[in-house]
Task: inverse folding
């Protein structure tokens, strides 16, 4: 479904990604790990089209479509979802209004009629339970005044609402206590199917206890320097990132 | 003084006619006001308070004035029919500069009769000034700043009629009173009118003013409203402007608050041409509270100027002020807000905030928040920001599949949200939410009818 | 007890209020074209400068004193002022031995030794008394680096081309009433030129002293920082205690070229008048910096404690792309002092940034206003401004006012202004009291803490002085 070839990207003229290659197939879970500043979050930003980053070289195809040519909203409508590391607070825009707009734009893209208000509220109720999101939160402004854990649960809730084909979870575990982590991971696991895939970006192995990856990649200095099965995560946890540096001869 | 000359001549030639067609109480200070206007002229941009708003040049058009008070052949009650469930207001009209009498209209219905039986006076200012000269004389012209503002002096010289509301002690009017100022003419027309609202101790009233234009000629309205809010009384004042590019709208609102009174003023400008709102709130009794807010959406070459003053004349009063502007195209937004805390007005709390969104290079914002404080035991602050839509929020929304245009719209709506939330009449609040959304979507036509009541 | 504190403190109030008994050369009172010719002649000026003075004078005659500030300015009789006064001594002392010992004593008393060896290392001083510069120290050492640091009169004589190129280029005489007056009768001041690529190794400073009675001081300062240069400049000022008001109307012009930076610090301690508001200096100053070059930077820091009336708006014209303007101010008013001060940030170049921090402290019967303009012109893409203006009130007879103006003509600009006004926190005072600190000291501590953000921007020696000043200025303000 997703094919990244030799992807280079920079911000303010500084190159962060220096040739990423990655292929993701339906049903797979890929974990991307790496030390701080290795480019993990940049990768998620570039895949979703954050205008702050410039792609300088390379290709990204999603189900055959050139992803890099699409606007951020069309990437979303194609089924690429990003769970933000730092979800933005949007005062004054209610969650209900926000989500209804998003869901209906997705439907319009697929040629479907907008959802009726009652159907929509029913859908919200169903999906909210999945991540045990408080009813009150849904009535508030987007992320405004949410705790760290609430924000992350809200991200997974939105993921459930939009049913993406590819979800990118950017440091979804950061700032979560163990209970919140379990709730979030449960949500993600329930949403998993043979048709969709996930890229889990994380610094620690902890999240991977709950969301078991098929592949683990180590990102270092803008490149994927090592790929293997889930056992790589454990090895990293044990030996630390210095081990990778040593292997690379640094 | 060329622009002034033609008006000075009109007054000199027709002064008697103006008086003959108004009430004696309104005529008492008329010559004095005219003399003051002769001295001051219209405010020019050389005056600090009018630096960015050249209202004088707006008078240059050769406007017609309806001094003889010829009635216009329309019945606004039949043109505007309220079809919004829940808004349910007492509806009144000022057509150009005259109070409109409808033989079958609201002025004679059961509910109004009921209010009248409780001592409420409501209707034409001219008529009530004739019927209750002492009551009207006690308040008329007592708050308006005739001495220092040429535009207000002009109004006092030329206004012949307007709206009057008197609410006796402890009488509560539940339903909002809605006054629609409508400009309707076949030639360029100017309207000067005057509103007087008096709430006695413990009274409650909600007042909604809508400004509209109905024809394509040039209009100028200069309206002065004086409000006296008695001890522990509660008053809400909403103003909604949805006029057109050919409209010059000069509104001056003076509110005098007694001890323990509570006032909300919320002025919203959706479409307009050239608008200047003067708002002055005097907190004259302890423990009075005022909430002043406003919002303006401007595009094309619209100009919206809100010049406000909140005067803390005594101690223990609270005021809060919030103004927001969203400007597109070549629109100009002017905000001047002055908070004055007099000496000995201790324990004052006054907060002011002005926030502006500038969406194009050619839009201009002039913001001038001011604090003038002569007492020490106070909590006062003001803040003003001008900026753009938050890129992070925009990207977040787009990454959820919301188009950029829609996301911008939602963010602009959100930006104006907290002003709209300060509407206590639920039906009106919902209505305004919808109107603002339509305005941002470009679906709100410039006024062709009452938008509160009719689409 | 309150009375005691007040009494105790008022005695120590203004320690620079002495008069130097020195023979002074003055020219007749009053202002007319002849007087201007005399001043110009005394200073042996070239014709172009005299012409300029006369033009400025003629323009001034057409102007009226401005009254827009939040100040109550008594009528000033411009014909009842001496426009030139100079200590009578050797007109151009070659070294210290030729300077009148009485003068040296005066500056010693003010804490400004003119003997280089006695000075704080790393600071060069130009000492100006009344209308002329007395002595400039370290001139030779600086000259080795190509830095010109001298009195304005010397600059006119020795570097006429430089002076002519920049004089009035930032503040033309048509700018305002006081600028026109200054341009007509200006006396002396400092001139600094920092050549390309030079970082001035020491702080340059000017010390202004008004001594003679009924005299106005009209100094003129011009600083030019050429490409890639840097200079930090300080000015200090004092005057004797006199019952009549004295006028001070200065012009300061700064020009900053590509990648250069000027840091300009002022500790203004002109005589503020007595407790009843009698006497004191009227301080009407036009200070403006032009960030002409790309990536240039100007930083104004001022601690204003003196003067009966202050009318002063150090400004930045941010013309070069990426140029930066900063304004840090502490203004203290006590007794019957009045201050209307602030800044103007005019954003013209792209990605220009400005930062304003203003801390007003009012006590007694004083009036303290912040007045500032932030203007973002249409071409100033990416301009940013943040302004923070806080006022602290000590006492219920004083006033604190904030008048910011924001004119924004660009959609990529972000402009933010915040202001708060409050009284001194009684809980903090009590907390100090409980720890055995007197009210007096507590106020001093709290006020210094409040002003710290600005004082920290001053060079070290000045910062210490400024802290002391703050405490002294407010000593009798809280009971």
Result:
């Amino acid at each position: 479904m997703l094919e990244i070839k030799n992807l280079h990207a920079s911000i303010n003229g500084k190159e962060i990604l220096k040739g990423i290659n990655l292929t993701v197939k339906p049903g797979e879970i890929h974990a991307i790990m790496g030390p701080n500043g290795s480019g993990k979050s940049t990768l998620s930003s570039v895949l979703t089209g954050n205008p702050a980053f410039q792609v300088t070289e390379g290709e990204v195809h999603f189900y055959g479509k050139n992803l890099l040519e699409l606007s951020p909203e069309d990437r979303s409508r194609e089924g690429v979802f990003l769970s933000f590391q730092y979800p933005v607070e949007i005062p004054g825009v209610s969650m209900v209004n926000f989500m209804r707009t998003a869901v209906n734009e997705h439907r319009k893209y697929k040629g479907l009629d907008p959802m009726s208000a009652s159907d929509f509220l029913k859908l919200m109720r169903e999906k909210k339970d999945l991540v045990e999101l408080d009813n009150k939160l849904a009535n508030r402004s987007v992320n405004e005044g949410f705790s760290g854990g609430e924000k992350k649960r809200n991200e997974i809730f939105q993921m459930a609402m939009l049913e993406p084909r590819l979800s990118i979870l950017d440091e979804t575990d950061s700032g979560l206590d163990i209970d919140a982590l379990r709730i979030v991971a449960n949500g993600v696991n329930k949403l998993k199917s043979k048709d969709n895939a996930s890229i889990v970006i994380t610094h620690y192995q902890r999240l991977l206890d709950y969301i078991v990856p098929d592949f683990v990649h180590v990102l270092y200095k803008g490149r994927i320097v090592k790929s293997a099965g889930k056992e790589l995560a454990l090895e990293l946890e044990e030996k630390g990132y210095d081990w990778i540096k040593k292997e690379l001869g640094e | 003084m060329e622009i002034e000359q033609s008006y000075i001549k009109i007054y000199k030639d027709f002064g008697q006619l103006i008086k003959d067609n108004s009430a004696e109480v309104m005529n008492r200070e008329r010559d004095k006001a005219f003399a003051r206007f002769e001295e001051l002229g219209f405010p020019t941009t050389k005056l600090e308070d009018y630096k960015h708003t050249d209202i004088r040049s707006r008078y240059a058009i050769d406007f017609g004035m309806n001094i003889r008070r010829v009635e216009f052949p329309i019945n606004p009650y039949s043109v505007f029919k309220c079809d919004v469930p829940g808004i349910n207001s007492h509806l009144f009209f000022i057509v150009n500069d005259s109070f409109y009498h409808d033989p079958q209209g609201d002025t004679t219905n059961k509910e109004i009769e009921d209010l009248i039986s409780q001592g409420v006076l409501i209707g034409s200012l001219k008529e009530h000034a004739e019927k209750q000269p002492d009551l009207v004389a006690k308040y008329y012209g007592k708050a308006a700043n005739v001495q220092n503002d040429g535009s207000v002096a002009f109004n006092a010289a030329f206004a012949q009629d307007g709206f009057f509301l008197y609410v006796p002690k402890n009488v509560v009017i539940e339903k909002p009173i809605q006054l629609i100022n409508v400009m309707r003419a076949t030639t360029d027309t100017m309207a000067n009118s005057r509103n007087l609202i008096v709430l006695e101790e413990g009274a409650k009233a909600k007042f909604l003013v809508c400004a509209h234009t109905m024809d394509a000629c040039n209009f100028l309205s200069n309206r002065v409203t004086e409000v006296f809010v008695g001890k522990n009384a509660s008053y809400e004042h909403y103003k909604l402007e949805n006029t057109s590019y050919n409209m010059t709208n000069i509104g001056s609102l003076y509110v005098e608050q007694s001890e323990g009174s509570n006032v909300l003023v919320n002025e919203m400008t959706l479409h307009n041409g050239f608008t200047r709102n003067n708002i002055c709130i005097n907190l004259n009794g302890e423990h009075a509270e005022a909430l002043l807010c406003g919002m303006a959406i401007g595009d094309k070459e619209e100009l919206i100027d809100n010049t406000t003053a909140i005067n803390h004349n005594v101690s223990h009063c609270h005021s809060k002020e919030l103004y927001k502007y969203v400007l597109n195209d070549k629109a100009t937004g002017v905000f001047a807000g002055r908070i004055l805390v007099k000496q000995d007005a201790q324990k004052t709390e006054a907060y002011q905030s002005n926030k502006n969104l500038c969406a194009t290079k050619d839009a201009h914002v002039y913001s001038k928040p001011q604090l003038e404080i002569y007492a020490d035991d106070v909590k006062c602050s003001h803040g003003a920001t001008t900026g753009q839509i938050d890129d992070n929020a925009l990207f977040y929304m787009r990454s959820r599949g919301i188009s950029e245009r829609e996301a911008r719209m939602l963010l602009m709506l959100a930006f104006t949200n907290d002003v709209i939330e300060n509407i206590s009449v639920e039906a009106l609040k919902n209505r305004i939410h919808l109107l603002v959304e339509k305005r941002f979507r470009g679906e709100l036509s410039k006024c062709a009818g009452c938008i509160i009541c009719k689409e | 007890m309150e009375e005691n504190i007040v009494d105790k403190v008022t005695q120590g109030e203004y320690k620079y209020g002495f008069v130097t008994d020195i023979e002074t050369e003055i020219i007749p009172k009053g202002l007319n074209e002849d007087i201007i010719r005399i001043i110009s002649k005394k200073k042996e000026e070239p014709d172009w400068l005299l012409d300029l003075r006369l033009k400025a004078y003629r323009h001034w005659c057409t102007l009226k004193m401005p009254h827009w500030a939040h100040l109550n300015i008594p009528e000033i009789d411009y014909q009842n002022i001496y426009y030139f006064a100079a200590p009578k001594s050797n007109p151009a002392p070659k070294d210290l031995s030729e300077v009148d010992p009485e003068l040296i004593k005066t500056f010693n008393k003010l804490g400004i030794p003119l003997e280089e060896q006695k000075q704080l290392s790393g600071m060069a001083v130009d000492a100006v008394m009344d209308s002329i510069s007395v002595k400039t120290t370290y001139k030779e050492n600086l000259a080795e680096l190509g830095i010109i640091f001298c009195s304005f009169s010397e600059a006119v004589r020795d570097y006429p081309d430089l002076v002519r190129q920049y004089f009035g280029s930032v503040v033309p005489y048509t700018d305002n009433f006081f600028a026109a007056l200054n341009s007509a009768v200006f006396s002396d001041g400092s001139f600094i030129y920092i050549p390309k690529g030079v970082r001035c190794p020491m702080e340059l400073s000017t010390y202004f002293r008004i001594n003679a009675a009924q005299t106005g001081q009209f100094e003129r300062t011009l600083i030019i920082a050429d490409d890639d240069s840097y200079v930090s400049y300080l000015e200090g000022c004092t005057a004797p205690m006199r019952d009549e008001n004295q006028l001070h109307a200065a012009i300061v012009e700064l020009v900053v070229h590509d990648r250069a930076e000027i840091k300009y610090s002022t500790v203004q301690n002109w005589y503020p008048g007595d407790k009843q508001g009698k006497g004191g200096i009227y301080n009407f100053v036009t200070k403006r910096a032009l960030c002409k070059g790309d990536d240039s930077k100007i930083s104004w820091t001022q601690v204003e404690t003196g003067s009966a009336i202050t009318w002063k708006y150090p400004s930045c014209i941010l013309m070069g792309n990426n140029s930066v303007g900063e304004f840090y101010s502490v203004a203290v008013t006590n007794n019957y002092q009045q201050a209307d001060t602030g800044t103007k940030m005019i954003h013209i170049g792209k990605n220009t940034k400005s930062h304003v921090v203003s801390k007003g402290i009012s006590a007694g019967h004083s009036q303290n206003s912040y007045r500032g303009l932030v203007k973002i012109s249409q071409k100033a893409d990416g301009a940013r401004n943040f302004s923070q203006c806080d006022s602290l009130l000590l006492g219920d007879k004083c006033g604190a006012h904030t008048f910011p103006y924001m004119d924004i003509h660009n959609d990529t600009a972000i402009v933010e202004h915040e202001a708060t006004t409050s009284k001194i926190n009684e809980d903090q005072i009590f907390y100090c009291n409980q720890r055995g600190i007197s009210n007096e000291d507590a106020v001093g501590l709290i006020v210094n803490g409040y002003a710290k953000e600005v004082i920290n921007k001053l060079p070290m020696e000045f910062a210490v002085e400024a802290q002391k000043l703050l405490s002294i200025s407010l000593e009798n303000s809280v009971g």
Remarks:
- The interface with chain A takes residues 390-393, 395-404, 406-407, 410-411, 413-415, 417-418 of chain B (CB under 8 Å).
